[in-house]
């Protein structure tokens, strides 16, 4: 091996790339996937509490009916919808469609807008009809 420095270029750094909506949605897809693990543990807690008897279920119901519980459920439902829409976006890409810069940016923006809109509509339905 030689001590001569190679003329190969260095790996690109984040300062070279322009931050794009598709990059943000990739990051959010990973974050929501992680958040779904935590939220699913809460769903399991609720199911185990329901199977364990009235006292255990009352405790879980009290938690989910609290402000913090409702905020967690709101965030969990948004994460679930966002992750699902991101999965559909990736499915479209897997078919070879929507790969241009303009279309992929629009799909990324639609993923965010769609997940927020669907979450609000779902929670309005829960509040108004429950």
Please outline the helices and strands.
Elements (H helix, E strand, L loop, with lengths): L20 H32 L1 H12 L1 H28 L6 H29 L1
Helix pairs in contact: 1-2, 1-3, 1-4, 3-4
Characterise this structure.
It is built from 4 helices and no strands. It has 130 residues and is mainly α. It has one domain: Fumarate reductase/succinate dehydrogenase, transmembrane subunit (3 helical TM bundles of succinate and fumarate reductases, Up-down Bundle). The chain is elongated. One of its GO terms (molecular function) is electron transfer activity. Its cofactor is heme.
Keywords summarizing the entry:
3 helical TM bundles of succinate and fumarate reductases, elongated, mainly alpha, 130 residues, 0% strand
What is this entry, summarized?
The protein has 130 residues and is mostly helical. The protein has helices spanning 21-52, 54-65, 67-94, 101-129.
Give the radius of gyration.
Answer: 21 Å
How many E strands? 0
Return the CATH topology.
3 helical TM bundles of succinate and fumarate reductases
Largest sheet composition: none
User: Could you name the CATH homologous superfamily?
Assistant: Fumarate reductase/succinate dehydrogenase, transmembrane subunit
CATH architecture: Up-down Bundle
N-end to C-end Cα span: 72 Å
Beta-strand content: under 5%
Secondary structural class: mainly alpha
CATH class label? Mainly Alpha
Order of helices and strands: HHHH
Shape: elongated
Domain tally? 1
Unreliably modeled segments: none
pLDDT average, as an integer? 92
| Helical stretch tally | 4
Oligomer: single chain
Share of helix, binned: over 70%
Transmembrane segments: 27-48, 60-81, 107-129
Main location: membrane
Function: Membrane-anchoring subunit of succinate dehydrogenase (SDH).
Protein name: Succinate dehydrogenase cytochrome b556 subunit
